[in-house]
Amino acid sequence: MSDPAAFEFRLEKRSEFLKQPVGHSRQGDFIKCVEQKTDALGKQSVSRGFTKDKTLSSIFNIEMVKEKTAEEIKQIWQQYFAAKDTVYAVIPEEKFDLIWNRAQSCPTFLCALPRREGYEFFVGQWTGTELHFTALINIQTRGEAAASQLILYHYPELKEEKGIVLMTAEMDSTFMNVAEAQCIANQVQLFYATDRKETYGLVETFNLRPNEFKYMSVIAELEQSGLGAELKCAQNQNKT
């Protein structure tokens, strides 16, 4: 497989899984028949819209900003991306450490993206400090050829000295816009950086006790947080 930002999935029971209704408790069967080969992700060539080896130094001069304060770097990062059509953030060290530590034991999760009619599920997979997302339906229909549709790049180079981690993203604009990508990025913080035990518990259940996982619990958490409300509202306005 030559697709760069692709997930490699082995769907031995794909035809069986495709018959399972959303929310079915046999999510465990899906987990068992999906084998993530994260090492391969970083070794593949680049797919449409994604940059190969997107390092922090390819964005700006690291040595130059080392003389700046964390607040100054934050402003530079925000100003740099403000005019660009993408997702970006400056994550405090403590929050990133929490996300990162949890990602080591629970590297995969499911996010729900509000659509005009209901929700679309996206599977997220950590590979190093990159977080790759692709639509669940893409995995179901294309299997190991399911390419990443959104990649969140996290840069911890300044974490120890400045106490911040820089993040930006690239997306396949044929599948999602910036607002939709932002909604998914917000869910990473919602589920991985939360202090609420029940919320992170969904991530643990998905990874460790997949037979107990239910899709609708993700939607319920998203709606309770209010993260998707603005996006849903905009979509409804566009519909009229």
Automatic annotation (TrEMBL):
UniProt GO cellular component terms: mitochondrion
Pfam families referenced in this protein's UniProt entry, alphabetically: ATP11
Main subcellular localisation: mitochondrion
Signal sequence segment: none
Localization in the cell: Mitochondrion
GO process annotations (BP): mitochondrial proton-transporting ATP synthase complex assembly
Alphabetic keyword roster: Mitochondrion, Transit peptide
Stated family: Belongs to the ATP11 family.
Name of protein: ATP synthase mitochondrial F1 complex assembly factor 1
Organism: Aotus nancymaae
